[in-house]
Structure of Thiol-disulfide oxidoreductase:
Amino acid sequence: MHEKTTVIYNDTCPICSREVDGYRRMTAQDGLDVAFCGLSDGTQAEHGLTKDAAARRFHVIQNGVLLSGMPAFAALWQEMPRLRWLAWLVRRPGLRQLTGVLYDHAMAPLLYRMHLRRQRRQESVSDPAAPR
């Protein structure tokens, strides 16, 4: 039996949200049973993830298995008819390693640092006495 695929993503990240909104639209148009859980839902804990761990990387739960990073993207894309080619591409030898390194050591850390900066700004706005 195929379990519902669940995407866990940082919905406070404008870049992440825009990308996931596109996935949400495509899966709805294609009638796919995919759940999308943003950090503000607080549901990441149900899947064994802290908010911080969930904010650091893109996660997909597929058939009860938690995937993160490029394997998570590839698993989601594989389910989406219009992006299946992309899943195939990033799983090719050489490209799999390259995209993994780029995501793990460039994109994910950059997006996470931006997330932390947004959090600090929001905290300083909500607490005017906080040091800037």
